[in-house]
Structure formats: structure tokens, C-alpha cells
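Appendix B: complex inputs.
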Amino acid sequence: MDEEKKVGTYECVAEPFHVDFTGRLTMGVLGNHLLNCAGFHASERGFGIATLNEDNYTWVLSRLAVEMDEMPRQYERFRVQTWVENVYRLFTDRNFAILAEDGRPLGYARSVWAMINMQTRKPADLLDLHGGCIVDYVCKDKPCPIGKPSRIRVQAAEPVESLRARYSDIDINGHVNSIRYVEHILDLFPLERYRETPIRRFEVAYVAESYYGDELSLYVDDCGGNAYAVEMRKNGKETACRAKVEFGGCCK
Amino acid sequence: MDEEKKVGTYECVAEPFHVDFTGRLTMGVLGNHLLNCAGFHASERGFGIATLNEDNYTWVLSRLAVEMDEMPRQYERFRVQTWVENVYRLFTDRNFAILAEDGRPLGYARSVWAMINMQTRKPADLLDLHGGCIVDYVCKDKPCPIGKPSRIRVQAAEPVESLRARYSDIDINGHVNSIRYVEHILDLFPLERYRETPIRRFEVAYVAESYYGDELSLYVDDCGGNAYAVEMRKNGKETACRAKVEFGGCCK
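Resulting structure:
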């Protein structure tokens, strides 16, 4: 397949209620756009959620890492490109480029996905699906010049914050949705932190689903260099997700 | 002007992270779409925020009432029509129709807006602006078969909930954004409430701006008939907004 055809390109715009107090798109909304574009791209190739659901399979986002030189401003049009970098037996790597209207790269993102059987919740073999044709979509030539999702560890013994999962947190599957985790993590930081320097890199690793009414506690390590590692635990024990937020800095 | 040209029509889609656990668009996201469409429509006619800002004026949403027979489902395409019903000296009434892809009405909305001078925060005379040409856009012929925003009163003496305005709440003007108020109000109700019957009508009246760090307390009256009146007060005193939420019922 032509390498060009392996890349999906989608138009977006930074809506007024989707920008923060600095007038720039929030990381949560950007994440939403990326996941939508991943959905469009997969659907157009026969691997969309709707098709998979018919066979009782679904995609599960495992990791997302976004690195931005610049966030789109209010009303700014931008483009999201997405492509599949690798397919393994249990995971696939999907990359993104976020481009300004003039084609200038604003940033990049990497994501890791698994496919599960919705009944057994067990992972599916991606190379076994549709006769292994998913590998035809792998695009090796397009660069994604940002680091891979890293291993995040949090030492903090006490939560800085606790909240309960509510109506607005819950998606069609009855789980707290991936974007709301990001928003709750962004809300840990005071406005001053965002005013000094915007987020340069945001990483999140989804570990376990949480549900309506779950108590979500947030543990934070200051990694130095304007970077923070965050762990969200549900009901005082199990890890729901981990994240790393770098405000122009570098987290060790 | 041709009556047809006075109505703006905009295409929308119910994105996966914008639907709730029932798979239907949330009222907050619908509100966001309506306000975006209001913005497009005003801009196309020379009354957009960007143009107004140059002269130090801006639109302020005063009231919004939405009544839905049916909310769009996940991935469903729908259309928002909007038009100006009335222009008075200090307020203008803007209506909306929400249509399914086949043109069937899913619901309607009414909104009331004022224009203020951004420096003095005083209201502007709408009939004075651009030589009064705003009245040329008034469309009297298109029906909006739902009740006008009503007067909301809340008696409750104790708040049921309190929260602090955070990063994700704050818009480019430094205020808690209109949609986040809606979301915080929706989050007052348990999932069961939404499962029994979806929201039929949602009304909100914006009274005073709130800011980062403000403590927002929510007071709720059960009006009977599956309807609730809500008042949000900031820092224990001033009213920020009032709302009425009707789950298929009717609030007296």
C-alpha cells in the first residue's frame, strides 16, 4: 500500500469552550481530538469500534504521550495526522502529528492500544484478526520525533486530592472516560503553574477501569525540573492510571 | 432580507467522549454546540466576539433553556439551526432548533444575550450598534415551540455540594465558563436519575461571574414531578447562576 494512504489527516478547530485561560487548547481536549481521529482512521480501514463490537471486540487505550511545542489558539484551525507505527501480537503503536494550518508541526503524540474481547475482557491476538491484514496499514516511514511513553513511578504516600466519579465522568461503557482522567489530573495544578509555562509533555498510562461512585485519590511526586508524576488510585487501593506532566521541564 | 437567510444551519456530530453512559449526548456538550453555533451565526453577520472585541464589546449569555424530545446518540450527525427572534435595547433573544440528519426536530432551545462594554462592564444599547442594523437579522417567522426561560427560585438553606473552581473551569476571560456550570449541575444527580428518564428540559440563568479558586456551593429544591431547581452561590453569598433540571417532568 502507498505509504501516503496509510496516514489519515483530519481537520480540527480550537473551539472557545475548549481553550483554557491562556486562550490555548487544553491537553484534555487535544487528547479527545487525537482519540477521535484514531477512531476515524481505524473505522475507515475496517478496524473501527463499531465493526469490532459486532464480533465482541473493542479497542482499549493503554498509553498516550503528547509533546507540544505550541498548543492551538482559540479559533485556530489545525490538522491531526495519524498512522500505525507497529503492530505486535497484543499491542499496536499509533502515532500522531498535530499541524498548524500552514503545515508547521505543533507537536506529536504516541499511543499504545490493545484489543480485548468484551465478554472475557481478555486481550485478542492482533495478528490473528481479519487474516492479519492489520499489518498492511503499518507505516514505517513517517517520523514521530518524541520519546516513547515511559515507565511512571509514584512514591508519595498521601493523596493530595480525592474525588468521586460522577455522571460527567462516565462513558457509554460505564467506565470513567480516558479524557476525564486527564482533566482531573490537569486540575491538580494551580493556574499559576500554567501561567509560568505551558505543558510541554503529558503522558498517561491507563491501568484499570474505574466506575461511577468510585473514590479516586491522586498521589503526586514533584520530579524536579517542572515535572510531576501522578498516580490515581481507586477506592484507596488499586491503581487506575499514572501520568507524567512536564511544564516545559524534563521528568527523570 | 430573505427569511431563510436569517437562519444559520450548522452540522454537528455526537463524539464518543461527548456522550454519557446511556450513549446520548450530554446536555453540557449540546450547550457547547449551541453556543458555538450562536458564535458562528453572529460572526457571519458582523456581530461576532472577535469584531466586537475590537470595539471593547462582548456578548454575555444571560439565559439558556433547552428542551429535547431526544438527544443525539453516539456518532449520530445532527444539525443546529439558529436565528435571532427579538432585539431589545439591552437584550436579544436567540433561538435554536436541533434536528436529526433526516430533518426531524429533536428539540429546541432559547437563549437571551446582553452585550457589555468590556472596560466598564456596563450593558451596551443593541439598537445603537452598527447603526441599528442588528434588527435586520430578526426572524419572526420561524417557530420555537418551547416555553421561554422562567424565573427560578431556590428555597434550600443548606448546600448539597461544594466545589472549588479549578483550571478546567476557567475560560479565556478568566471566568468559570458557561458550560462548566452546566456540567457541575448535571453532576449533582445520581446515575439512576438519568437511567430512569433523561432530561427533558434544562434551564440556566447566569447571574454573576465566578473566578479561579471561588468556592461554588450548590443548593437544590426538589420541585416534585421529577424537576429540580438549583442555585449556585460563590464564596457562601453571591448567586453565580440558577438552573432548573426537568427529568421528563414539569417544574412548577
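Chain A touches chain B through 37 residues (CB under 8 Å).
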